[in-house]
Specification:
single chain; alpha/beta; TIM Barrel; Non-ribosomal Peptide Synthetase Peptidyl Carrier Protein, Chain A; 2 domains; 8-stranded parallel β-barrel; two-stranded antiparallel sheet; 10 strands; disordered N terminus; binds flavin mononucleotide; Aldolase_TIM; oxidoreductase; DUS-like_FMN-bd; flavoprotein; tRNA dihydrouridine synthase activity
Length: 342
């Protein structure tokens, strides 16, 4: 069983972290501002988006931006993808000039065609020898190496457990496992049972991923022996899953942040997005995260509809302020009405 004492100053995969709630790598999502938000809310560790090793070697601005460290927080894992060990090593040499990082991740999970056609991402699940060689070569840099895999599809000739074992034998410090096959992409349910079996087979060395949407999901994976749990879409859907999970793991009553405090954190986050990534990208991220921030708030749907068509950063701020003012006034009316009733 998970013990409260495990939640502080843990050591997973050769990295020390304050707790086992980790922000998963997410392309186009886990930018510096989002990583900072996750740490502010209590996450123990964050990942960069996946970065192309060949893109790094070419010096592509977009790829280098992925490893942008501006105003970042530690511990931080840089995740790379490549189709072979040599490209990976050359990419890692460039990545480490963007550091500091606490571990190097290898993406062996991405099912997207543009990654698969390079023999990278989940294409490596069919090539355990190449995957092992990538881990071995990356270990030479002296950093913990964290591959991230998906569940092996039925009939692939190797089980997920065998694949994970090969990665550990090659020197991986821990292995993140997403309990969907590449063919499932993000559809259907993650196979929680299989991931938990791996957690039991490699206690404290698996980072569990797949359908983590509630604090109870976090506890479930940790109770099975996961070294840590990766928050992905559950973080976008409700970033306050982090403090709620920490409350649950620590046996504290759940603290419910007020609308005003959510709004304050959101405005700070929006400011960071704009400062670090520019108004265009920031606007897209604000639209993506706003529904989750104000999920349980009356009028959250109206906010989403209001923000949807906006293309201008200043207009977005005005509409957001208006929505907040209306919501606060609505709460005041409700309070006054309750007092009159009472
Ligand atoms: C928008 C998005 C981008 C992602 N990008 C990456 C990535 O760059 N590297 C990676 O290993 N996994 C990536 N993933 C997979 C997540 O890290 C995670 O394993 C997956 O979403 C399953 O967790 P969930 O069901 O709790 O969302 C991505 C997922 C999403 C939704």
């Amino acid at each position: 069983m998970y013990r409260e004492s495990d939640s502080l100053n843990i050591s997973v995969g050769g990295v020390r972290a304050a707790n086992p709630l980790f922000l998963a790598p997410m392309a186009s999502v886990t930018t510096a501002a989002v990583r900072r938000l996750a740490v502010q809310l209590g996450a123990g560790l964050t990942h960069t988006e996946m970065a192309s090793a060949t893109g790094l070697v070419r010096g592509g601005r977009q790829t280098l931006r992925v490893l942008d460290q501006t105003n970042d927080t530690r511990p931080l894992v840089a995740q790379l993808f490549a189709g072979d060990a040599e490209s990976l090593v050359r990419g890692a040499e460039v990545a480490l000039t963007c550091g500091p990082f606490d571990a190097l991740g290898i993406n062996m999970a991405c099912p997207m065609p543009k990654v698969l056609k390079r023999g990278a991402g989940s294409a490596l699940l069919d090539r355990p020898d190449e995957a092992a060689s990538m881990v071995r070569e990356l270990c030479r840099f002296g950093f913990p190496v964290w591959p991230k895999v998906r569940k092996e599809p039925a009939g692939s000739g190797i089980t997920t457990e065998e694949f994970v074992q090969i990665l550990f034998e090659a020197g991986a410090s821990c292995v993140a496992v997403h309990g969907r096959t590449p063919g499932q992409r993000y559809e259907g349910q993650a196979d929680r049972k299989s991931v938990k079996e791996l957690c039991r087979a490699f206690p404290g060395r698996i980072l569990a991923s797949g359908d983590v949407f509630t604090a109870e999901d976090v506890l479930d994976y940790l109770s099975a022996g996961a070294g840590a749990v990766l928050l992905a879409r559950g973080f976008i859907a409700d970033p306050f899953i982090v403090p709620r999970s920490l409350d649950l793991l620590s046996g504290r009553p759940e603290a419910r942040p007020s609308l005003a405090s959510r709004y304050e954190i959101f405005c700070e986050f929006a400011g960071e997005l704009e400062r670090l990534h520019g108004p265009k990208m920031a606007l897209g991220m604000v639209k993506r995260f706003a529904p989750g921030f104000f999920k349980f708030q009356a009028g959250a749907g109206a906010l989403r509809r209001t923000l949807g068509p906006i293309n201008d950063w200043n207009e977005m701020q005005i509409r957001l302020d208006e929505w907040f003012g209306q919501s606060e006034r609505g709460k005041e009316h409700a309070r006054n009405a309750a007092e009159l009733d009472g």
